[in-house]
Design goal:
By secondary structure, this protein is of the alpha/beta class. It is 36% helix and 20% strand. It has an eight-stranded mixed sheet, with helices on both faces. Helix 4 links the parallel strand 3 and strand 4. Helix 5 packs across helix 6.
Length: 298
Protein backbone atom coordinates (compact mmCIF):
# COMPACT_ATOMS: atom_id res chain seq x y z
CA UNK A 1 0.00 0.00 0.00
CA UNK A 2 1.25 3.51 -0.74
CA UNK A 3 1.40 6.22 1.90
CA UNK A 4 -2.00 6.81 3.45
CA UNK A 5 -3.65 10.01 2.13
CA UNK A 6 -3.55 11.48 5.64
CA UNK A 7 0.21 10.90 5.78
CA UNK A 8 0.69 12.43 2.32
CA UNK A 9 -1.31 15.47 3.40
CA UNK A 10 0.91 16.04 6.43
CA UNK A 11 4.05 15.70 4.30
CA UNK A 12 2.72 18.10 1.67
CA UNK A 13 1.87 20.62 4.38
CA UNK A 14 5.50 20.73 5.48
CA UNK A 15 5.34 18.07 8.15
CA UNK A 16 8.80 16.66 7.39
CA UNK A 17 11.37 17.74 10.01
CA UNK A 18 14.95 18.68 9.13
CA UNK A 19 17.76 16.15 9.71
CA UNK A 20 18.63 15.55 13.36
CA UNK A 21 22.02 16.92 14.37
CA UNK A 22 23.60 18.25 17.54
CA UNK A 23 22.79 21.73 16.27
CA UNK A 24 19.12 21.01 15.51
CA UNK A 25 18.33 18.85 18.56
CA UNK A 26 17.15 21.68 20.82
CA UNK A 27 14.80 22.99 18.14
CA UNK A 28 13.54 19.46 17.47
CA UNK A 29 12.74 18.98 21.15
CA UNK A 30 10.88 22.28 21.31
CA UNK A 31 9.07 21.56 18.06
CA UNK A 32 7.94 18.12 19.18
CA UNK A 33 6.36 19.52 22.32
CA UNK A 34 4.90 22.57 20.58
CA UNK A 35 3.19 20.37 17.97
CA UNK A 36 1.41 18.18 20.51
CA UNK A 37 -1.95 19.98 20.46
CA UNK A 38 -2.12 19.99 16.66
CA UNK A 39 -0.81 16.44 16.33
CA UNK A 40 -2.62 14.71 19.17
CA UNK A 41 -5.48 16.97 20.28
CA UNK A 42 -6.31 18.38 23.71
CA UNK A 43 -6.45 15.06 25.54
CA UNK A 44 -9.24 13.03 27.13
CA UNK A 45 -10.63 14.21 30.50
CA UNK A 46 -9.94 11.72 33.29
CA UNK A 47 -10.84 11.32 36.95
CA UNK A 48 -7.40 12.55 38.00
CA UNK A 49 -4.03 13.41 36.48
CA UNK A 50 -1.12 14.28 38.76
CA UNK A 51 2.62 14.71 38.55
CA UNK A 52 4.79 12.91 41.05
CA UNK A 53 8.23 11.70 42.00
CA UNK A 54 9.28 8.05 41.91
CA UNK A 55 12.47 8.08 43.97
CA UNK A 56 13.79 11.03 41.99
CA UNK A 57 12.28 10.12 38.62
CA UNK A 58 9.47 12.44 37.44
CA UNK A 59 6.26 10.61 36.60
CA UNK A 60 2.70 11.48 35.66
CA UNK A 61 -0.14 9.33 36.98
CA UNK A 62 -3.38 9.04 34.98
CA UNK A 63 -6.42 7.64 36.78
CA UNK A 64 -9.36 6.80 34.48
CA UNK A 65 -11.80 6.10 37.32
CA UNK A 66 -12.07 6.17 41.11
CA UNK A 67 -12.04 2.36 41.22
CA UNK A 68 -9.57 0.86 43.66
CA UNK A 69 -7.25 -0.92 43.10
CA UNK A 70 -6.52 -0.20 39.46
CA UNK A 71 -4.18 -2.22 37.24
CA UNK A 72 -1.19 -0.25 35.99
CA UNK A 73 0.45 0.43 32.65
CA UNK A 74 3.88 2.04 32.52
CA UNK A 75 4.13 4.12 29.35
CA UNK A 76 7.53 5.09 27.97
CA UNK A 77 7.55 7.83 25.34
CA UNK A 78 9.48 7.70 22.11
CA UNK A 79 11.91 10.25 20.73
CA UNK A 80 15.14 8.37 20.10
CA UNK A 81 16.20 8.56 23.76
CA UNK A 82 16.90 12.25 22.99
CA UNK A 83 13.47 13.88 22.70
CA UNK A 84 10.01 13.67 24.20
CA UNK A 85 8.65 14.23 27.70
CA UNK A 86 5.48 14.07 29.74
CA UNK A 87 3.84 16.75 27.59
CA UNK A 88 4.54 15.27 24.16
CA UNK A 89 2.69 12.06 25.02
CA UNK A 90 0.08 13.43 27.42
CA UNK A 91 -2.92 13.12 25.04
CA UNK A 92 -1.86 9.59 24.15
CA UNK A 93 -1.55 8.54 27.80
CA UNK A 94 -4.93 10.07 28.61
CA UNK A 95 -6.62 8.22 25.77
CA UNK A 96 -4.89 4.96 26.65
CA UNK A 97 -5.99 5.23 30.29
CA UNK A 98 -9.58 6.02 29.29
CA UNK A 99 -9.88 3.09 26.88
CA UNK A 100 -7.95 0.51 28.89
CA UNK A 101 -9.46 1.28 32.30
CA UNK A 102 -5.97 1.02 33.77
CA UNK A 103 -3.94 3.63 35.57
CA UNK A 104 -1.14 4.86 33.33
CA UNK A 105 2.22 5.95 34.72
CA UNK A 106 4.25 7.99 32.23
CA UNK A 107 7.96 8.09 33.05
CA UNK A 108 9.95 11.24 32.28
CA UNK A 109 13.29 9.47 31.93
CA UNK A 110 16.51 11.41 31.38
CA UNK A 111 17.43 12.23 27.79
CA UNK A 112 20.59 11.79 25.73
CA UNK A 113 23.13 13.03 24.89
CA UNK A 114 23.18 14.83 28.25
CA UNK A 115 22.42 11.49 29.92
CA UNK A 116 23.69 8.57 27.88
CA UNK A 117 23.12 4.84 28.39
CA UNK A 118 22.07 3.45 30.81
CA UNK A 119 20.35 6.55 32.26
CA UNK A 120 16.93 6.04 30.65
CA UNK A 121 16.86 2.33 31.50
CA UNK A 122 17.92 3.05 35.08
CA UNK A 123 15.17 5.65 35.50
CA UNK A 124 12.50 3.23 34.33
CA UNK A 125 13.75 0.49 36.65
CA UNK A 126 13.71 3.00 39.52
CA UNK A 127 10.11 3.95 38.75
CA UNK A 128 9.01 0.31 38.57
CA UNK A 129 10.70 -0.45 41.89
CA UNK A 130 8.94 2.56 43.40
CA UNK A 131 5.56 1.25 42.20
CA UNK A 132 6.12 -2.16 43.75
CA UNK A 133 6.98 -0.50 47.06
CA UNK A 134 4.53 2.42 47.14
CA UNK A 135 1.77 1.65 44.63
CA UNK A 136 -0.85 0.41 47.07
CA UNK A 137 -0.83 3.81 48.79
CA UNK A 138 -2.13 5.29 45.53
CA UNK A 139 -4.83 2.69 44.95
CA UNK A 140 -2.77 0.75 42.41
CA UNK A 141 -2.68 -3.01 42.02
CA UNK A 142 1.02 -3.91 42.00
CA UNK A 143 0.12 -7.47 41.01
CA UNK A 144 -1.31 -6.36 37.65
CA UNK A 145 1.30 -4.27 35.86
CA UNK A 146 2.06 -3.93 32.15
CA UNK A 147 4.71 -2.00 30.28
CA UNK A 148 4.36 -0.24 26.95
CA UNK A 149 6.22 2.25 24.81
CA UNK A 150 6.80 3.57 21.33
CA UNK A 151 10.06 3.77 19.36
CA UNK A 152 12.96 4.22 21.81
CA UNK A 153 10.41 3.90 24.61
CA UNK A 154 9.54 0.45 23.26
CA UNK A 155 13.25 -0.43 23.32
CA UNK A 156 13.43 0.55 26.98
CA UNK A 157 10.20 -1.34 27.67
CA UNK A 158 11.43 -4.64 26.30
CA UNK A 159 14.69 -4.34 28.24
CA UNK A 160 12.72 -3.56 31.41
CA UNK A 161 10.55 -6.61 30.74
CA UNK A 162 13.67 -8.76 30.83
CA UNK A 163 15.04 -7.04 33.94
CA UNK A 164 11.85 -7.64 35.91
CA UNK A 165 11.51 -11.20 34.65
CA UNK A 166 14.95 -11.83 36.12
CA UNK A 167 13.98 -10.16 39.42
CA UNK A 168 10.95 -12.41 39.84
CA UNK A 169 8.34 -9.67 39.35
CA UNK A 170 7.42 -10.02 35.68
CA UNK A 171 5.04 -7.69 33.90
CA UNK A 172 1.68 -9.08 32.85
CA UNK A 173 2.38 -8.07 29.26
CA UNK A 174 4.45 -5.78 27.04
CA UNK A 175 3.33 -3.55 24.19
CA UNK A 176 5.97 -2.39 21.72
CA UNK A 177 4.97 0.20 19.13
CA UNK A 178 7.37 0.80 16.22
CA UNK A 179 10.19 -0.44 18.44
CA UNK A 180 13.87 0.35 18.11
CA UNK A 181 15.62 -3.01 18.40
CA UNK A 182 19.30 -3.83 17.78
CA UNK A 183 21.67 -1.24 16.35
CA UNK A 184 22.69 -3.55 13.51
CA UNK A 185 19.17 -4.61 12.52
CA UNK A 186 18.52 -4.40 8.78
CA UNK A 187 16.27 -1.39 8.19
CA UNK A 188 13.30 -1.51 5.86
CA UNK A 189 13.89 0.19 2.52
CA UNK A 190 11.06 2.71 2.50
CA UNK A 191 10.56 6.26 1.31
CA UNK A 192 8.88 8.03 4.18
CA UNK A 193 8.34 11.46 5.71
CA UNK A 194 8.87 9.81 9.08
CA UNK A 195 12.04 8.55 10.74
CA UNK A 196 15.07 8.40 8.44
CA UNK A 197 18.22 6.27 8.80
CA UNK A 198 20.27 9.40 9.49
CA UNK A 199 18.01 10.37 12.37
CA UNK A 200 18.16 6.87 13.83
CA UNK A 201 21.96 6.88 13.59
CA UNK A 202 22.10 10.23 15.38
CA UNK A 203 19.95 8.86 18.20
CA UNK A 204 22.13 5.77 18.60
CA UNK A 205 25.24 7.94 18.74
CA UNK A 206 23.61 10.19 21.35
CA UNK A 207 22.51 7.38 23.66
CA UNK A 208 25.25 4.81 23.08
CA UNK A 209 28.30 6.83 21.98
CA UNK A 210 31.69 5.51 20.97
CA UNK A 211 33.10 3.13 23.56
CA UNK A 212 29.72 1.68 24.56
CA UNK A 213 29.16 -1.97 23.61
CA UNK A 214 25.97 -1.85 21.56
CA UNK A 215 25.79 -5.64 21.42
CA UNK A 216 25.12 -6.04 25.14
CA UNK A 217 21.57 -7.26 25.92
CA UNK A 218 20.42 -3.95 27.41
CA UNK A 219 21.10 -2.27 24.07
CA UNK A 220 20.54 -5.22 21.74
CA UNK A 221 17.37 -6.91 23.04
CA UNK A 222 17.28 -9.26 20.05
CA UNK A 223 20.54 -10.81 21.25
CA UNK A 224 19.22 -11.43 24.78
CA UNK A 225 17.60 -14.51 26.28
CA UNK A 226 13.91 -13.90 25.52
CA UNK A 227 12.46 -17.01 27.14
CA UNK A 228 9.91 -16.38 29.84
CA UNK A 229 9.18 -12.79 28.84
CA UNK A 230 5.57 -11.56 29.19
CA UNK A 231 3.11 -11.79 26.30
CA UNK A 232 3.83 -9.19 23.64
CA UNK A 233 1.85 -7.07 21.23
CA UNK A 234 4.15 -5.57 18.60
CA UNK A 235 2.77 -2.85 16.35
CA UNK A 236 4.65 -1.72 13.26
CA UNK A 237 4.01 0.81 10.49
CA UNK A 238 4.35 -0.15 6.83
CA UNK A 239 6.35 2.94 5.81
CA UNK A 240 8.76 2.91 8.75
CA UNK A 241 12.44 2.01 8.47
CA UNK A 242 11.91 0.09 11.72
CA UNK A 243 9.06 -2.02 10.36
CA UNK A 244 11.25 -4.98 9.41
CA UNK A 245 13.34 -4.93 12.58
CA UNK A 246 10.21 -4.72 14.73
CA UNK A 247 8.62 -7.70 13.03
CA UNK A 248 11.87 -9.64 13.20
CA UNK A 249 12.00 -9.03 16.95
CA UNK A 250 8.39 -10.18 17.27
CA UNK A 251 9.40 -13.41 15.53
CA UNK A 252 12.34 -13.82 17.90
CA UNK A 253 9.92 -13.51 20.82
CA UNK A 254 7.57 -16.08 19.30
CA UNK A 255 10.43 -18.49 18.62
CA UNK A 256 11.43 -18.15 22.27
CA UNK A 257 7.97 -19.32 23.30
CA UNK A 258 6.61 -15.89 24.20
CA UNK A 259 2.93 -15.42 23.23
CA UNK A 260 3.33 -12.72 20.59
CA UNK A 261 1.07 -10.93 18.13
CA UNK A 262 2.51 -8.58 15.49
CA UNK A 263 0.30 -6.14 13.60
CA UNK A 264 1.39 -3.90 10.72
CA UNK A 265 -0.57 -0.68 10.10
CA UNK A 266 -0.78 -0.14 6.37
CA UNK A 267 0.17 3.23 4.90
CA UNK A 268 1.50 4.52 8.23
CA UNK A 269 4.87 5.96 9.23
CA UNK A 270 7.05 5.96 12.30
CA UNK A 271 5.54 8.01 15.10
CA UNK A 272 1.96 7.67 13.88
CA UNK A 273 0.80 6.24 17.20
CA UNK A 274 0.81 9.51 19.18
CA UNK A 275 -0.69 11.59 16.36
CA UNK A 276 -4.30 11.06 17.35
CA UNK A 277 -5.56 14.24 15.67
CA UNK A 278 -3.83 13.51 12.37
CA UNK A 279 -4.29 9.83 11.62
CA UNK A 280 -7.37 7.65 11.99
CA UNK A 281 -5.00 4.70 12.37
CA UNK A 282 -3.58 6.21 15.56
CA UNK A 283 -6.88 6.04 17.37
CA UNK A 284 -7.51 2.53 16.08
CA UNK A 285 -4.04 1.42 17.20
CA UNK A 286 -4.52 2.87 20.69
CA UNK A 287 -7.89 1.12 20.88
CA UNK A 288 -6.22 -2.15 19.92
CA UNK A 289 -3.53 -1.66 22.56
CA UNK A 290 -6.16 -0.78 25.16
CA UNK A 291 -8.17 -3.92 24.39
CA UNK A 292 -5.01 -6.00 24.70
CA UNK A 293 -4.21 -4.43 28.05
CA UNK A 294 -7.74 -4.99 29.35
CA UNK A 295 -7.47 -8.67 28.48
CA UNK A 296 -3.99 -9.18 29.91
CA UNK A 297 -4.64 -7.20 33.10
CA UNK A 298 -8.06 -8.70 33.90
Amino acid sequence: MSLHPQVRAVAQAGGVPPPLTTETLTAARIGLEASTLAEAGPGTPLTAVSDGDADGVPIRLYLPSPANPLPVVFYLHGGGWAMGNLETHDPLCRYLAALSGAAVIAVDYRLAPEHAFPAAHDDVDTAVAWLHREGERYGLDTGRVAIAGDSAGAHIATVAARHWRDRGKPFACQVLVCPVTDHDAELSDVESPGLRPQGLEFCWDAYAPAGVDRDQPDLAPGKADLTGLPPALVITAEHDVLCGPGEAYAMRLAEAGVPTVAVRYQGMIHGFFRRLARFDAARQAVAQVAANLRAELS
